[in-house]
Amino acid sequence: MDPDSLAAKLTRIQKAPEFSETDTTYINTLYEISFGLGRENRDSARNLAIRTITLSEKINYQKGIARGYYALALTKLLDGNQREAIKLAKISEQKAEILDFSNMVLGARNTKGIAYRELQQVDSAFLNYYRGLKLAESMKSHRHMYAFHVNLGLLFLNNNNYKEALIHYKDAEPSVEKMSSKNFTLSHKLKIAELYLLQNQTDSAFSYLEQARYLIENHTGFAREHSNYWNQMGDLYLLKEKPKLADEAYYKALSITDSLNEPNRVGTYAGLAESAYRQNKNVSSLEFAQKALAIDQGQGLPNTSDELHKLIALLYSKTGQKDSAQLYFEKYQNRYMNLQKSIMSKQIAMLQSKENEKTRLARAEGRAIEEAKSKKVLAWFWLAVCVAGLGLSIFFFRGYRQYKKEVFELDRINQEKDQLFTILGHDLRSPLSTMQELIMLYQEPHKEQDSLYNQLGSLQRRVFFSKEKLNNMMHWAREQVQNAKPNKELIMIEDLIPHCIAAVYEIAAKKNLSISFTSDPRGMLIADPIHLEIILNNLLINAIKFSSENHAIRLKWSESESVKRLSIEDEGVGFSEEQLEQFHEKGKLNSRKGTSGETGLGLGLNICQKLMHLNKGGIQIENTEQGTRVNLIFNN
């Protein structure tokens, strides 16, 4: 509602028979008018804010007090009195937090963030923006989420951290779309394009500039944004080494901004200076650079000013004016060093602030969890007292059923154990016999080395596969003892896969098998890294076991909107339809010998299936024209 409409509303309230200055509707209207007048008439806005506080305190209207201090903080901020604005915003925030008045808390934090940013206290500014963003996200308030993302982006941009700034502007895009404002949308796309240009990512910048062009062509009243668009097109052409096209774009920007006293003109003249310099038009370049610097003196754009000093120094040097060149180069050096020191100190402060906020949030979350646990324990205690009789009878009945079930399960596990130890004892005799024969061969004089090497190669394969049997036995035994929950963390697939390939490299080399890995896009996954390593080792060993010599094993990572997939494909003997049906129905396969006579326990795929289930995934096996493909599927 505009100030005139609010003033008319105030008049109607005052003329009402039941009118009272201590009526909350009247007080809220005073606040709304103060808030609306802030930029146009600061004195009136300040007086109305003070009036709001005074009347609210008279009737102990806490929401009105919080609003009054917030409106007063805004007037102080507009007056350039940032420290006073911070004090008043803090009072508003504290009262709003007690009242659970979230919108007012967001406004106070945003005001404090702006004031701290203007005071160059970037750590405090970051803290207020970050806390405001988290609250806005919990409320799903897109207007506030947009404001805090943009303010965080500006904070990082002012400190030359273009990558972090771009992240926040990109994160704000969904909120901009929800707000359905063509003006916000256009400005936002141009800012993202600018950040891409600052990082020399021309293709991404061009994509956003094209989206901006479409909005400009289909709507009116965007003169400033239109000028900005051509400015950025000029920067884009310069990055692509097309100075003539850049000149055309910059001149189009100038034709629009001639009537506007905007910082865009600094960027336009600076761009023309750089373009002329690249075309060896030194005189024109110097003229444009000096124009840009003259305008910039009143606008204070630090990065642009530094680059202009550097360019003018180079141009004077080219024309032989060494004294002038030295003067501008010294100015550039001094400004650059001071700027870098300032940026470094601000970035360190922001990092410290971020870590402090994470610690504070973690402690607060810990306290909340403990309180919730205490309440939950107390609730369950009283519930248990109320239903003690029924609970005991159900407990004994279920206990008996569980006892019978566990007896049956223990009997099954014992049978499996006896069978597995029998198989394992039989299979371990083979490598041990080979070791015995090898020792005897070493003891025999004049034994040929080729024979010894052949025996060693055979022994290595047998020992490797025997070790894997023992590993699977250990995993099987651990699963029977306890159903451990997975310890999930962020896994970089590109780091894990080479480690797993290295573990089986030597045994694959014995069959002259190649193992390759491709990823599209860069793979990341939340899972238990130990579980995933066990799964991959089992599947790679199976692929080696059932592959003939001189073939290939391929691992591939892929993603879609719903799932992430890691495929292990070999050129081996494959599975029969009956075996695939057995796996998909029962989750396990009977043991088979490999192409070189390797043996197993038949536990590997069963363990893999269980571990994938614990990590919210599944295994899919299919035959291909060349062999077998095993897909590890994770929900996205």
UniProtKB/TrEMBL annotation:
TM annotation in the entry: 377-397
Residue span(s) of domain Histidine kinase: 423-636
Xref: Gene3D superfamilies: 1.10.287.130, Histidine kinase-like ATPase, C-terminal domain (3.30.565.10), Tetratricopeptide repeat domain (1.25.40.10)
Pfam families cross-referenced by the UniProt entry: HATPase_c, TPR_8
GO molecular function: phosphorelay sensor kinase activity
InterPro entries, per the entry: HATPase_C_sf (IPR036890), HATPase_dom (IPR003594), His_kinase_dom (IPR005467), HisK_dim/P_sf (IPR036097), TPR-like_helical_dom_sf (IPR011990), TPR_rpt (IPR019734)
Keywords from the UniProt entry: Membrane, Phosphoprotein, Transmembrane, Transmembrane helix
Protein name: Histidine kinase domain-containing protein
Source organism of the structure: Aureicoccus marinus
High-level lineage: Bacteria, Pseudomonadati, Bacteroidota, Flavobacteriia, Flavobacteriales
